[in-house]
Amino acid sequence: MRYRLLGRTGLYVSELCLGTMTYGGRGFWQAIGSLQQTEVEEQIKAAFEAGINFIDTANVYSLGESERLLGAALKTLGLPRNELVIATKATGIMSELPNGRGQSRYHLFNEVDASLARLQLEHIDLYQLHGFDPLTPLEESLSALNDLVRSGKVRYVGLCNMSAWQIMKALAISEREGFTKFVSVQAYYTIAGRDLEREVLPLIEDQGLGLMVWSPLAGGLLSGKFSREAPGPEGARRTNFDFPVVDKERAFRCVDVMRGIAAQHGVTVAQIALAWLLHRPRVSSVIIGAKTMAQLADNVAATRVELSADDAAALDTVSRLAPEYPGWMLAMQAQYRAKPPQRP
After folding, report:
1. What's the rounded Cα separation, in Å, for the pair 320 and 293?
2. Spatial distance between the Cα atoms of 143 and 6, rounded to a whole number of angstroms
3. 10 Å Cβ neighbour count for 218?
């Protein structure tokens, strides 16, 4: 297991992050996973022993049950707190009360305390806005996050699922007001869905933010269990919950190429999909979520896959984004400055 700095911070996180969306299985979340306490403890213990020091959850996962199971597991296992980086999030619907969702100061302050209680922790290492709230002014949300950092309840702040202009606006407000800045972006990114590279990834590179990748296997579509001809196994996440949105024909073209590369390396298709991300620049950590210990072990093994230059070229060719304006224009104009001028 390798460790990478989270953006421009001095914080090292494991290149794989353990996701906990499969914990609990309350209501809607049952389609994704329903691991209970014994299974959760077994998974966390194995992940920690494999070198994973980064765990990501959210208040909304099974309406707090994921955080509760995680907190109980950490206490039962007695894992050293100073060797763990615990991340959680707030924004989603936690109740049908008027202020039971969003990014108001009221809601964020309430949810931090609720998350800390469920996790049985004194502080959260990375607290993330779980999307964009169109009603709450960014100034209010950012001021609240700044105060939470100053209070000691939160160490770093990050965001999820925002567009480039929203992220840049937030960074500019924090710069202007002297607030704690976002250090990370959690976003959907896979070999079959490289949309992030159009606007958000260039911003991440320019601003030195860390990138945490969610759903690296496109909801299981890149696991190798799915094909054009087969709908997928019963009980698989994609079978029960067809998310995230992906161009399936494009995804299967990628799978076709990955199958050949996986066979050459003697590994699974899923490991090739994860290895591709682990070889991408600016990726701080790839979030893996598993229903079984076998899935967890397979995902962890992806850290040992070394892609050759030919492998990387083949994967890039099959998955490359189609040119879009202004991207193709910017690339063309950049060529004018690619080489330093020479005096004739």
Report:
1. 33
2. 22
3. 26
SS3 286: strand
Q: Is 276 left (phi over 0), alpha (psi -120 to 50) or beta?
A: alpha
Q: What count of residues does the chain have?
A: 344
Beta strands in 91-151 (DSSP E): 124-129
Distance of CA 106 to the CA centre of its chain: 26
Nearest by Cα to 54 from 11, 107, 94, 21: 11
Instruction: Pull the structure tokens for residue 245.
Output: 């949105």
Q: Going from the N-terminus, what domains does the chain have, and what CATH number goes with each?
A: 3-337 (3.20.20.100)
What residues form DSSP beta bridges with 87? 56, 126
Q: With 0.85 as the threshold, say if the pTM is over it.
A: yes
**Tens digits of residue pLDDT in 11-58:** 999 999 999 999 999 988 998 999 999 999 999 999 999 999 999 999
Contacts of 176 (CB under 8 A, 6+ apart): none
The helix (H) or strand (E) run that includes residue 327 is: helix 327-334
Structural tokens at position 180: 């704690």
147 Cα distance to chain centroid: 25
Catalytic residues: 61
Confidence of residue 240 (pLDDT cuts 50, 70, 90): confident
